[in-house]
Write a structure and sequence with these properties.
Length: 273
């Protein structure tokens, strides 16, 4: 699933393509969002909000997309061949200069802009870690709410109602950086470690929003990541083989794989944290 830095990057790429431009053609998937309603409208803004993308129009409508596991946004010149089949397009917006296409996204909604504040998903989002005004204290307070006390800290970091924008890569990388087991209950993780993970997460998300491959390491560590996707390979810190496990944060959640070093990030019962 795309992370908050991916959505911030998408917004950064699409903004100059769409902002201030008049939509001359538009369509959604059959039976989906009535994107014909924005033909003739001008794009006011393109905004990432956590893992959501919002494209606002001057006729008081906003296109809301969430990319899920497989969705993506593409931009094309008017005469350029698409890199995916048109049958997979779920939203198409065309200006005189460019065409932008969303493929395979499970969520595509055209909403009245005034209704965004009442949207059940958007209004529940925590402070967005990808933005300069990320509210660190609000995120820490949310992580300390009683319902998250027994939640694995890795799961809590990607709970979008606590803070928006982190995903599965950061779920593994941030606990590794701070030597925290990703399955430690939030209640067992000290405030300074939670804050350190949020500070590092905010810095990395903003760094990675600028483009290029996602990097969570420093120049002193080879590769782009420490543990994510590296099951069985040596830990860059101590050489112990990295392990992984597929878990669900709750029964309705999608299964996700967490990665960690069993030596640098001992199990909660023996971590002393």
């Amino acid at each position: 699933m795309p992370e908050g830095d991916t959505l911030a990057r998408i917004a950064h790429v699409l903004r100059p393509v769409l902002a201030g431009k008049r939509i001359v053609a538009a369509r959604g998937r059959p039976g989906g969002a009535r994107l014909d309603l924005v033909i003739g409208a001008t794009v006011n803004n393109v905004e990432a909000r956590g893992k959501h993308l919002l494209i606002g129009f001057d006729n008081d409508l906003t296109l809301h997309t969430h990319l899920g596991m497989n969705g993506s946004w593409h931009r094309y010149r008017p005469d350029e061949r698409w890199r995916r089949p048109a049958s997979r397009a779920v939203a198409v917006l065309r200006t005189n200069d460019a065409t932008v296409v969303c493929f395979d996204a499970p969520t595509v909604e055209l909403l009245e802009t005034r209704a965004l504040a009442a949207h059940p998903v958007l209004r529940a989002l925590g402070s967005d870690i990808a933005t300069p005004d990320f509210d660190m204290d609000a995120a820490l307070t949310a992580l300390r709410e009683p319902q998250r006390a027994h939640m694995a800290v890795g799961d809590a970091l990607i709970d979008q109602s606590a803070l928006a924008g982190l995903g599965n890569v950061y779920r593994s990388e941030l606990p590794f950086i701070e030597r925290v087991n990703p399955f430690a209950p939030v209640a067992q993780v000290r405030d300074e470690l939670l804050r350190a993970m949020l500070e590092r997460g905010a810095a990395l998300v903003r760094q990675n929003s600028a483009g290029g491959p996602r990097v969570t390491t420093t120049a002193a560590t080879p590769g782009n990541v420490h543990v994510y996707g590296r099951t069985g390979r040596p830990c860059p810190r101590c050489g112990t083989r990295i392990v992984s496990k597929v878990t669900r944060a709750h029964p309705r959640a999608a299964p996700r794989r967490a990665y960690w070093c069993p030596a640098c990030q001992p199990a909660p019962a023996t971590s002393g944290r």
